[in-house]
Design brief:
heterodimer; A: 271 residues; mainly alpha; 3-stranded mixed sheet; 12 helices; 7% strand; B: 106 residues; 5-stranded mixed sheet; 3-stranded antiparallel sheet; 8 strands; 0% helix
């Protein structure tokens, strides 16, 4: 485990173990279980932890409801919009070639703005600047559909992370390791330390954002990574960050860095 | 904008049992939920689904509020002759969607 790091505040637990006169062997076991970052080779997509039925839904494009959003996204891609009367396709051409691998490297560093933007914000920047159209609201069907369509073009490609994102990734890491909310839990306490266990009936995953936007059975709909993050914040009784907040982008950047090299599954199905 | 995805084998042998998979986008609002302000959200569901094979009904289903959003219906039929399979979904608020797929039977 990392010593002296500010990440996981596990001291109280260890202190209890000591107070109870826990054996050295037991402590060694605790140390092994709390190993900080998950070793690269032990990382597992949430897909591998799903039921066979859910995996079958994701494996078959005619059973994956996110494909309905994909059809909408494809239509929007080719539809002229805004005062410029320009469609995405007028600049980018066919998404199957121009958008290949794009979603695998977002959030990406935007040199002009000097900060990272995630894929939803990139789409909206294109809308406001190039199409001169109103930005699409977060979690609106149109924005999700376009994101699904763009992300689909990176399916199977390895997730990449840009070194220029380093400060933002560190900011995301700090949020990830910070205890928050009434339950006083950090992301790491579930997704690094206890990903092989269950939380009530649900599998605790490692929290790799490999398949966003996802079709979540609980939502009966497609949703973004930020919606999923807000879910977790509400779960630990913390106040969720607003959609588009820099903290969200930092978390996204950190999670993508954490999942670097893993294959994009977008649009995935999750329970 | 409502969408449907239908998967039918393009070709089949005469007498072969073929699998048909259909997926349609619909919120399937049950009519039992309330909004943030406490008002009842009116029911909005697909109530009926039908498949016709060259005009003859080969499959029909009634749908109810307990069915999840974006209903996924899979069924089988016997490939009898080349022609068209027509799928129709109907529902609340005048909802109607039709999609056709051709099949070649050798």
């Amino acid at each position: 485990m990392r010593l002296g790091g500010s990440r996981h505040s596990r001291r109280p637990r260890l202190a209890v173990e000591l107070a109870c006169g826990g054996l050295v062997a037991a402590l060694a076991g605790v140390a092994a279980a709390f190993s900080g970052d998950i070793p690269l080779a032990e990382r597992r997509s949430g897909y591998e932890m799903m039921s066979r039925a859910s995996r079958a839904m994701q494996d078959d494009d005619t059973a994956n409801p996110a494909m309905l959003w994909l059809l909408d996204g494809e239509a929007t891609w080719n539809l002229p919009a805004g005062e410029a009367r320009r469609a995405c396709a007028d600049c980018h051409g066919s998404a199957t070639t121009s958008m290949k691998g794009v979603a695998a490297r977002y959030p990406a560093f935007d040199g002009a703005r000097g900060r990272p933007v995630d894929i939803e914000e990139r789409i909206n920047l294109c809308r406001t600047e190039r199409q001169q159209a109103a930005p699409l609201p977060f979690e609106s069907r149109d924005l999700l559909a376009l994101t699904v369509y763009v992300a689909r073009q990176s399916r199977g490609m390895p997730i990449q992370s840009d070194e220029r994102l380093r400060p933002v990734i560190e900011m995301g890491r700090a949020i990830y390791g910070r205890r928050q909310g009434q339950l006083n839990l950090s992301c790491a306490q579930c997704h690094d330390d206890n990903w092989d266990k269950r939380l009530a009936g649900n599998v605790v995953t490692q929290g790799h954002p490999t398949g966003y936007p996802i079709y979540r059975l609980e939502w009966q709909s497609v949703g973004s990574l930020q919606r999923r993050l807000r879910n977790c914040f509400i779960g630990i009784r913390a106040e969720p960050y607003d959609y588009g907040a820099p903290e969200h982008v930092a978390l996204e950047a950190f999670l993508m860095w954490r999942a670097r090299g893993m294959a994009v599954e977008s649009p995935a199905v999750r329970p | 904008m409502s969408r449907a995805l239908v998967k039918v084998p393009g070709t089949a042998r005469r007498g072969e049992v073929i699998e048909i998979r259909t997926l349609v986008s619909h919120v399937m609002e049950t009519g039992f939920r309330v909004s943030n302000t406490g008002a009842l959200i009116p029911r909005d569901i697909i109530t009926g689904f039908e498949c016709r094979y060259n005009g003859e009904q080969v499959f029909r289903a009634d749908l109810y509020p307990a069915i999840a959003a974006n209903p996924f219906i899979v069924f089988h039929t016997v490939a009898t002759e080349s022609g068209t399979l027509t799928f129709t979904w109907t529902g609340d608020n005048g909802y109607a969607l039709t999609q056709s797929v051709t099949i070649r039977v050798a």
